[in-house]
Design a protein that fits this description.
This protein has 419 residues and is of the alpha/beta class. It folds into two domains: 2-52 and 368-418, Urease, subunit C, domain 1 (Roll), CATH 2.30.40.10; 55-358, TIM Barrel (Alpha-Beta Barrel), CATH 3.20.20.140. It has eleven helices and 18 strands. The protein has helices at 75-84, 103-113, 138-143, 159-168, 195-200, 207-224, 236-248, 258-262, 284-296, 331-338, 344-358, and strands at residues 2-10, 21-27, 30-35, 44-47, 51-55, 57-62, 87-92, 119-124, 148-149, 176-178, 191-192, 204-205, 228-231, 252-256, 301-302, 374-383, 404-413, 416-418. Strands 1, 2, 3, 4, 5, 16, 17 and 18 form an eight-stranded mixed beta sheet that branches. Strands 6-7-8-9 form a four-stranded parallel beta sheet. Strands 10-13-14-15 form a four-stranded parallel beta sheet. Strand 17 and strand 18 form a beta hairpin. Helix 6 packs parallel to helix 7 (236-248).
Length: 419
């Protein structure tokens, strides 16, 4: 198959063509030429005037619910949602039934996306059954293509177990992913603890539950000299802690969700269960600190935290609703809406370059002779997620029917064009 991208602006800080508006001709999944006013004939010609192209985007934390919860999402519906959101690779959480804590489960997930328009990278469990007690066979899972390790929505609570995990993955230069929540503090919290939670009469989950976990994990990281990625950062203090750890030279990275960039606890007064997430959305001041950290580079990646939930677990009383929302199709637009001053290079770094470097994924460079793994996006057109264009099996989106600035135009991966 041949594809010609006409008048597209390259947003790739690793390419000598970065910032150039040009034509890109692709043949059998390889970039053959980058030249102005190409006269080459192609099977598919795409008018990209006003649009940008970067290396294919990577989501670092999604739950595809398969196996065990296919009524919420399957690997194939998750792939469809990811492609529609501009992603060519997704790191898939192991919060399934059974848990992804062995090489057979890892192989099952990896095989589903190995040759598709979205490559799936399984995240293996840190502990057996994600119970936080004994380490899973991470070495075997790594050999079967697990790209990182996390207990997902059940972050490891035991300092001793997490210390052993950090030491264990050093044998193969592995990375642990942790959601920063100390579950012994306000274990029944439903939203951020503050004035709004008090006014709403809901039990709160204080920021200190996150910040204590981050402090602990940074101390353990310093002791082991291992690698750690903290996802779902939500408080200003957490950002400060990670910024200081980076200055110290520790191998720490972090990601934030579009929900935490877009919303704060004041938006929850309508009891919208699609804003019930872990960690919770916090104050306006926290939200502004997160946005500033995206701009200054403290935050490395934008993570969708795609967490499908069926109708019964979301359309109910706030107290009984499950945590999480879907986000793959709206992540880019929410980022563009909340941090509009980003440069194209920054968008490329946040959605592609940094994640590839942190997790050891194949690098992408928009150069002649290189493989074509690309995402094409327009920064001025609008996107609206609707029940009709939603690719996920679930509809628990915080952005449903809400117009957002920024639109994904197409992806190219494994010699497949998705528009």
């Amino acid at each position: 198959m041949t594809i010609l991208l006409k008048q597209v602006t390259i947003a790739d800080p690793q390419s000598k063509h970065n910032g150039l508006t040009t034509d890109i001709f692709i043949e059998n999944g390889v970039i053959v030429s980058i030249e102005s006013n190409s006269s080459k004939k192609a099977d598919q010609t795409i008018d990209c005037k006003g649009s940008f192209v970067s290396g294919g985007w990577v989501d670092v934390f999604s739950n595809f619910c398969d196996p065990g919860f296919e009524f919420k999402e399957t690997l194939q519906s998750g792939i469809a949602a990811a492609a529609a959101g501009g992603y060519t690779r997704v790191l898939v959480m192991g919060d399934t039934k059974p848990v992804t804590d062995n090489k057979a489960q890892v192989a099952y997930i990896y095989a589903a996306g190995n040759h598709s328009n979205v490559t799936l990278h399984p995240i293996g469990a840190i502990t057996k059954k994600m119970e936080g007690q004994s380490l899973a066979e991470m070495y075997d899972m790594r050999a079967s293509n697990a790209v990182a390790f996390s207990d997902g929505m059940h972050p490891v609570q035991s300092p001793g177990v997490f210390l052993k995990a950090l030491q264990y993955v050093k044998a193969f230069d592995g990375v642990l992913i942790q959601i920063p929540i100390d579950k012994t503090i306000a274990a029944n919290g439903l939203m951020h603890e503050g004035i709004v939670s008090t006014q709403m009469g809901l039990p709160g989950l204080p920021a200190v539950a996150e910040e204590l976990m981050v402090k602990r994990d940074i101390d353990l990281l310093r002791y082991t000299n291992s690698k750690l990625h903290i996802t779902g950062v939500s408080s200003a203090t957490t950002v400060d802690l990670i910024r200081a750890a980076k200055k110290e030279g520790l191998a720490i990275s972090c990601s934030v969700t579009p929900t935490h960039l877009f919303y704060c606890d004041e938006d929850m007064t309508t009891f919208n269960t699609n804003l019930k997430v872990i960690p919770p959305v916090r104050t306006k001041a926290d939200r502004e600190a997160l946005r500033a950290a995206v701009v200054d580079g403290t935050i490395d990646c934008i993570a969708s935290h795609h967490a499908p939930q069926d109708w019964d677990h979301k359309v109910c009383e706030f107290e009984y609703a499950e945590f999480g929302n879907i986000g793959l199709q709206t992540t880019y637009s929410a980022l563009e809406q909340t941090v509009p001053g980003l440069k194209p290079d920054q968008i490329s770094n946040l959605l592609s370059v940094n994640a590839r470097q942190i997790f050891g994924l194949p690098g992408v460079s928009i150069e002649e002779g290189q493989g074509a793994e690309l995402t094409i996006f327009n920064r001025t057109e609008t996107t609206t997620l609707t029940p009709e264009n939603n690719k996920s099996k679930s509809s628990n989106s915080a952005f449903m029917k809400q117009p957002l600035t920024g639109k994904v135009m197409a992806t190219i991966h494994n010699n497949q064009l998705t528009q």
